[in-house]
Amino acid sequence: MTKTELEKVAVEVRKGIVTAVHSAKSGHPGGSLSAADIFTYLYFEEMNIDPANPKKEDRDRFVLSKGHVAPGFYSVLAQRGFFPVEELKGLRHVGSFLQGHPDMKHIPGVDMSSGSLGQGFSAAVGMALAGKMDGKDYRVYALAGDGEIQEGQIWEASMFAGHRKLDNLVLIVDNNGLQIDGKIDDVCSPYPIDEKFKAFNFHVITIDGNDFDEIAAAFAEARATKGQPTAIIAKTVKGKGVSYMENQAGWHGKAPNDEEYAIAMEELEKAGEALCQK
User: Fold this and answer.
1) Which residues fall within 8 angstroms of residue 272, CB to CB, at 6 or more apart?
2) pLDDT digits (tens, 9 = 90+) for 81-122
3) Integer CA distances (angstroms), 222 to 90, 109, 114, in order
4) What span, in angstroms and rounded, lies between the C-alpha atoms of 188 and 193?
5) Nearest by Cα to 176 from 32, 40, 44, 46
6) Residue 226 pLDDT > 90, yes or no?
7) Mean pLDDT score of the chain
């Protein structure tokens, strides 16, 4: 896909996020919106997947380690054709298969259930090791939050991945700078993130995680890297695409009301229309 085509898809992913969280009257829009471009590139360009056969053996694997941004994950899965977009309105509703965290037993395209922060990356490392041991060539991708990497389990998993030279593994850190209690460097600073991963024998790439050119280059570089896992530090804007949510920690885990929803959808509609003019 071209950059403009990917940007158009990302707008639709963002619409799905806002619609789902508004419908649920709860959820996590801020981190879902910041990661929307990463989700879009992974599912529409990078990964070997097939919505018609979600469990195909040679598929690439994805683990959402920061499981609370499930609205972003669900929205890209719906856009990619794993289930109807209309299902997003059932987010967190009784009887819906789209609950507050991803469930591998009930949602097509979900390779690992996730929730407790820090644990998802360990699962991804296990998947990558299994691929190496089985002689398979699938790749494993995981998305973590920058607040999440305050969890010790992230670093245990990183130590193991670096030691085992899991070059089929890519961790993307959504570095939007904010977590539920405010700025990550005020709460418990993980900086310098890049130097920490380098110390664990990762190949590290730092990018603008809301720019598709930089995203594409980073994943290409990760594929070319041998003998080391890759960490992509993606600097993003929390709430990206909705003006009043951008860089506001208060939108980490809060749903828009009807008026706010209308404003957000109008802004995203205009963004989509502008892309159609290109």
Assistant:
1) 8, 11, 12
2) 999 999 999 999 999 999 999 999 999 999 999 989 999 999
3) 36, 23, 24
4) 12
5) 32
6) yes
7) 97
Q: Could you read off the pLDDT of 178-222 as tens digits, one per residue?
A: 999 999 999 999 999 999 999 999 999 999 999 999 999 999 999
- For 153, counting Cβ atoms within 10 Å of its Cβ (0-12 exposed, 13-18 middle, 19+ buried), the class is middle
- Which 3-state string (H, E, C) describes 63-130? EECCHHHHHHHHHHHHHHCCCCHHHHHHCCCCCCCCCCCCCCCCCCCCCCCCCCCCHHHHHHHHHHHH
Percentage above 90 pLDDT, the chain: 99
Does pLDDT of 278 surpass 90? no
Alpha-carbon torsion 23, 29, 34, 38, what sign? negative
Instruction: Give me the count of residues in the chain.
Output: 278
Are 39 and 102 spatial neighbours (Cβ–Cβ below 8 Å)? no
Quote the CA–CA distance of 49 and 64 in Å, as a whole number.
16
Query: Which pLDDT score, from 0 to 100, does residue 110 have?
Result: 98
Token pair 């998802």: residue: 120
Hey, what are 253's tokens? Answer: 């885990």
Question: 């998947």: which residue's tokens?
Answer: 127
pLDDT-based confidence at residue 11 (cuts at 50, 70, 90): very high
Instruction: Please name which of 127, 152, 122 lies closest in space to residue 138, comparing C-alpha atoms.
Output: 127
Greatest alpha-carbon pair distance for the chain in Å reads 53
From residue 115, give the alpha-carbon distance in Å to each of 119, 129, 146: 8, 22, 15
Report whether the peptide linkage leading into residue 84 is cis, meaning its omega lies within 30 degrees of zero.
no
Q: In whole angstroms, what is the distance from residue 218 CA to residue 163 CA? A: 22
Element (H, E) at 169: strand 169-175
- pTM attached to this predicted model: 0.97
Select from 213, 180, 177, 210 the least CA-distant residue to 193. Answer: 177
